[in-house]
UniProtKB/TrEMBL annotation:
It comes from Sesamum latifolium. The lineage of its organism: Eukaryota, Viridiplantae, Streptophyta, Embryophyta, Tracheophyta. Residues 43-115 form the DUF4283 domain. Pfam families: DUF4283. InterPro entries: At4g02000-like (IPR040256), DUF4283 (IPR025558). This is DUF4283 domain-containing protein.
Length: 202
């Protein structure tokens, strides 16, 4: 890179605020950015998450209304034309709770969330697994427990959590469980339960 010491700096001023120095080259302009600028900008956006959907991008107004409804600490929602959503929270604690509480689904579509960091590149990574909701029917009441439902759901994928009604046990027609599955996996239509005796034998 050409040293700027032999070139005359061009000072850019807006009002009376000095914004920095430009060093002109033949085909580009180099901008001097200080660490103080980075720190000040990062402070403003530290309680922000960047997200995108695996699949079709839902309308912005629907996403904005949905996240404000389920996450009461949301301050602002923004979006880009290439499918990224920026969600600003009231504080970092609220942000961490949302990140740790995932995965999250919107109209059955998983949304990938990551904390905004300095220099974060906006690109959608390839995913090999995805969380989905499944309904488990004809479950014996004896298996309507955390261990029982987890054992059954593991026949589909990795169990993550139950919905509120399943957890409360107030609807026995079916259990609704969120499981992590391989993106291209063929899901089974039936799960065979093999009961063992008290001695552990089938």
């Amino acid at each position: 890179m050409q040293s700027p010491s032999n070139q005359k700096p061009i000072l850019l001023r807006v009002s009376t605020t000095h914004l920095g120095r430009y060093y002109a080259t033949s085909n580009r302009t180099n901008r001097m950015v200080t660490s103080q600028m980075i720190q000040a900008g990062s402070k403003r956006w530290e309680a922000m998450t960047v997200g995108y959907f695996l699949g079709r991008k839902p309308p912005f107004h629907q996403v904005s209304a949905y996240v404000r409804f389920i996450w009461h600490s949301v301050k602002d929602v923004m979006a880009t034309v290439n499918g990224f959503f920026f969600i600003q929270f009231a504080n970092c604690v609220a942000l961490e709770e949302v990140i740790d509480g995932g995965p999250w689904l919107f109209q059955g579509q998983p949304i990938v969330l990551q904390k905004r960091t300095s220099g974060l590149a906006l690109r959608k990574h390839g995913h090999t697994q995805v969380p989905i909701w499944v309904k488990l029917r004809h479950i014996p009441v004896e298996l309507w427990t955390t261990d029982g439902l987890s054992t059954i759901a593991s026949g589909i994928g990795r169990p993550l959590y139950r919905d509120a009604i399943t957890k409360a046990g107030t609807r026995l027609d079916f259990a609704r469980v969120c499981v992590m599955v391989d993106f291209n996996a063929t899901l089974p239509k039936h799960i065979v339960m093999i009961f063992s005796g008290e001695d552990g034998n089938e």
